[in-house]
């Protein structure tokens, strides 16, 4: 049994990345993910790795693109405004079919917004974010333990499917200190015959590229990529189902909102209201099937979010408008309280619209 | 029969897409000759820009990466940091390097990133049809400066070699031209040096190549080369601007 250590979420991501064999990190200072960059600055040079504070988030993601082209594990981290700057590079990484890991420790927006926790980059993370048709694999931890576990998983999934992956966390999880069992050192070695490593005069040149000027060829690369996405939607959906067997009300929440919602479910059950929760762990691919199945037996859904309501759209699409979907939200860096969730569900139980 | 002239091995057999009279072809050849001479094709990774040379990845036989507009020095940094024993070069135009990518080139230079940059300055955005570039000359007529570049509203051209050589970081900064045989020979030597510096782990080496654009300048190839000699080179003087090994 590995030992438990007390760590901040931001540090747990950094340590898990190192244990997953990531030796290249490029970042730019931004709150509230600061500890992650600092951890990498301290550790990587002593491990023979590369830590580089880039001149901008734009440069950082393009350095990531460079390392990813050579087939090595690489990551960058930032928070919402910085992630917006990286979108161009993320689109190129997706377009060139490269694996890379991007961490978003979200803060409130839009614009400069605030530095308190938020989930308002959900659309950006799950619908592409940059230009063109593409997706990232998006994992949403809701504890420091999951910050570590999902980071290791994200590297494996990125390598397996040749695509960028994102950890969609928030300022609370980044700053929270909790006991964590760190993942074992593991490096899943995936063959990367496409990587640029020098031809050694022994093969044709490899080209890492996202430019296809012939429309039919560009369409084919898009179609091929979306075939892969379809497979991922069928095989890589992850979620937690909590007290859903007999639930009349299904709360859908991820990340820090799911922790609040878990308390709300307990409180509602004590009051005799049968509430349950589906907690997406992947928000792309979104757990559509389990939500659709829940629609057959629940009275209503409640999407709990730290935004003006973004995931609620995916909940509605997933449950195919069979049941009403309500929104319980706060924004600006404020976390909805368990009471706000329970009060909403109690009103619904009382017959309120 | 003796072979007296042949295509460098580091160039593929793909037909270049450049306009008649464009000097990109000469510059590609000089880069390929340097790679051949130094025997490093198998270890070389090139980074193509956005601009006229965007499809350079089809022309060089070494491994290639296509970068976003202006980001080639950052991409090259990532590649070089991942594979320190490889030979990494980026090939960039004036819009790419001196406008949208100014931050990336300045910071790669100040870090003395051990990479080679070939900077092709023809004072215009060629690929998009002839817009004003950061290096367009005062008074130069382009699609977006139809009355001539007015320095009062559009600012002055940027002399990249002079600017970068003001930094402590970079190893080697030089400006060459390819408008006549003498200048081509000098450019060949200089580009080879910029690659050799990298192999000897000396650091950031940039060669600015004053180039032409007959199509978008609206000139015959011959007139364009005369414009390089009579208008471009006086504004962008040729020479070595920084050579740290010579300073030591």
Description:
- The complex is a heterodimer of chains A (353) and B (248).
- By secondary structure, chain A is of the alpha/beta class.
- Chain A has 2 domains: 4-235, 3-Layer(aba) Sandwich (Rossmann fold); 240-349, Rossmann fold, CATH 3.40.50.
- Chain A is 41% helix and 20% strand.
- Chain A contains 12 helices and 15 strands.
- Chain A has helices at residues 9-19, 34-43, 57-69, 80-95, 122-126, 144-161, 171-175, 215-235, 255-270, 288-294, 311-319, 338-349, and strands at 4-8, 24-27, 50-53, 74-78, 100-106, 137-139, 164-170, 177-181, 207-208, 239-242, 249-252, 275-280, 282-284, 300-305, 325-329.
- In chain A, the strands form 3 sheets. Chain A has a 7-stranded mixed β-sheet with strand order 3-2-4-5-7-6-13, sandwiched between helices. Chain A has a 5-stranded mixed β-sheet with strand order 10-12-11-14-15, with helices on both faces. In chain A, strands 1-8 form a two-stranded antiparallel ribbon.
- In chain A, α1 (9-19) packs parallel to α2 (34-43), α1 runs parallel beside α6 (144-161) and α10 (288-294) crosses α11 (311-319).
- The longest helix of chain A is centred in the middle third of the chain and has 21 residues, at 215-235.
- Chain A is globular.
- In chain A, 55% of the residues are buried.
- The model of chain A has no long low-confidence stretch (mean pLDDT 97).
- In chain B, a hairpin with a 5-residue loop joins β5 (124-125) and β6 (131-132).
- In chain B, α3 crosses α4 (102-110).
- Chain B has a single domain, classed as Thiamin diphosphate (ThDP)-binding fold, Pyr/PP domains (Rossmann fold, 3-Layer(aba) Sandwich), CATH 3.40.50.970.
- Chain B starts with 23 loop residues before the first helix and ends with a helix.
- Chain B has 248 residues and is α/β, with parallel strands linked by helices.
- The longest helix of chain B is centred in the last third of the chain and has 19 residues, at 181-199.
- In chain B, the strands form 2 sheets. In chain B, strands 2-1-3-4-8-7-9 form a 7-stranded mixed β-sheet, with helices on both faces. In chain B, strands 5-6 form a two-stranded antiparallel sheet.
- The radius of gyration of chain B is 17 Å and the shape is globular.
- Classes of the chains: A alpha/beta (353), B alpha/beta (248).
- Chain A binds chain B through residues 24, 26, 50, 52, 54-56, 58-60, 62-70, 72, 74, 88-89, 92, 96, 196-202, 205-211, and chain B through 12, 41-45, 47, 54-55, 57-58, 60-68, 71, 74-83, 86, 103-104, 106-107.
- β9 of chain A pairs parallel with β2 (63-66) of chain B, so a sheet runs across the interface.
């Amino acid at each position: 049994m590995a030992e438990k250590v007390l760590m901040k979420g931001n540090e747990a991501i950094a340590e898990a990345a190192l244990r997953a064999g990531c030796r290249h990190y490029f970042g730019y200072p931004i709150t509230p993910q600061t500890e992650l960059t600092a951890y990498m600055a301290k550790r990587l040079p002593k491990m023979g790795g590369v830590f580089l504070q880039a001149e901008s988030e734009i440069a950082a993601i393009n350095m990531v693109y460079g390392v990813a082209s050579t087939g090595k594990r690489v990551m960058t981290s930032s928070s919402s405004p910085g992630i917006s700057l990286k979108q161009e590079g993320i689109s190129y990484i997706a377009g060139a079919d490269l694996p890379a890991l991007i961490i978003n420790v979200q803060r409130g927006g839009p614009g400069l917004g605030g530095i308190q926790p938020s989930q308002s980059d959900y659309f950006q993370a799950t619908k592409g974010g940059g230009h063109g048709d593409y997706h990232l694999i998006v994992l949403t931890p809701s504890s420091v333990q999951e910050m570590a576990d999902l980071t290791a998983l994200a590297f494996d999934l990125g390598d397996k499917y040749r695509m960028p992956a994102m950890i969609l966390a928030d300022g609370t999880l980044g700053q929270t200190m909790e006991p964590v069992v760190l993942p074992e050192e593991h490096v899943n070695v995936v063959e990367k015959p496409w990587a640029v490593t020098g031809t050694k005069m022994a093969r044709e040149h490899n080209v890492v590229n996202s430019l296809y000027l012939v429309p039919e060829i560009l369409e084919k690369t898009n179609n091929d990529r979306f075939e892969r996405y379809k497979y991922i939607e069928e095989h890589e959906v992850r979620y937690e189902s909590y007290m859903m067997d007999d639930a009349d009300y299904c709360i859908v929440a991820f990340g820090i909102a799911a922790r609040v919602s878990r308390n709300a479910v307990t409180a509602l059950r004590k009051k005799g209201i049968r509430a349950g929760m589906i907690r997406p762990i992947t928000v792309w691919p979104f757990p559509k099937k389990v939500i659709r199945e829940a629609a057959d037996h629940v009275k209503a859904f409640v999407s709990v979010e730290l935004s003006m309501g973004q995931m609620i759209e995916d909940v509605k699409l997933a449950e195919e408008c069979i049941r009403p979907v309500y929104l319980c939200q706060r924004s600006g860096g404020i976390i909805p309280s368990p009471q706000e969730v329970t009060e909403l569900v109690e009103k619904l139980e009382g017959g309120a619209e | 029969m003796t072979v007296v002239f042949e295509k460098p091995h580091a160039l593929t057999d793909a037909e270049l897409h450049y306009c008649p009279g464009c000097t990109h072809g000469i510059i590609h050849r000089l880069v390929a000759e340097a790679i051949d001479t130094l025997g490093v094709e198998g270890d070389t990774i090139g980074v193509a820009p956005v601009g006229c040379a965007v499809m350079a990845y089809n022309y060089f036989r070494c491994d290639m990466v296509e970068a976003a507009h202006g980001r080639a020095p950052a991409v090259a940094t990532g590649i070089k940091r991942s594979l320190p024993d490889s030979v990494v070069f980026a090939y960039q135009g004036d819009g790419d390097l001196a406008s949208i990518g100014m931050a990336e080139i300045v910071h790669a230079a100040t870090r003395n990133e051990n990479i080679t940059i070939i900077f092709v300055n023809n004072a215009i955005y060629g690929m998009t049809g002839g817009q004003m570039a950061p290096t367009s000359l005062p008074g130069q007529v382009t699609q977006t400066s139809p009355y001539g570049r007015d320095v009062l509203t559009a600012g002055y051209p940027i002399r990249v070699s002079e600017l970068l050589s003001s930094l402590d970081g970079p190893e080697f900064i030089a400006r060459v031209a390819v408008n006549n045989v003498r200048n081509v020979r000098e450019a060949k030597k200089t580009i080879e040096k910029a690659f050799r510096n990298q192999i000897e782990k000396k650091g950031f080496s940039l060669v600015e190549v004053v180039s032409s654009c007959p199509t978008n300048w609206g000139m015959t190839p011959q007139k364009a080369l005369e414009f390089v000699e009579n208008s471009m080179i006086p504004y962008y003087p040729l020479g070595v601007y920084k050579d740290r090994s010579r300073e030591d």
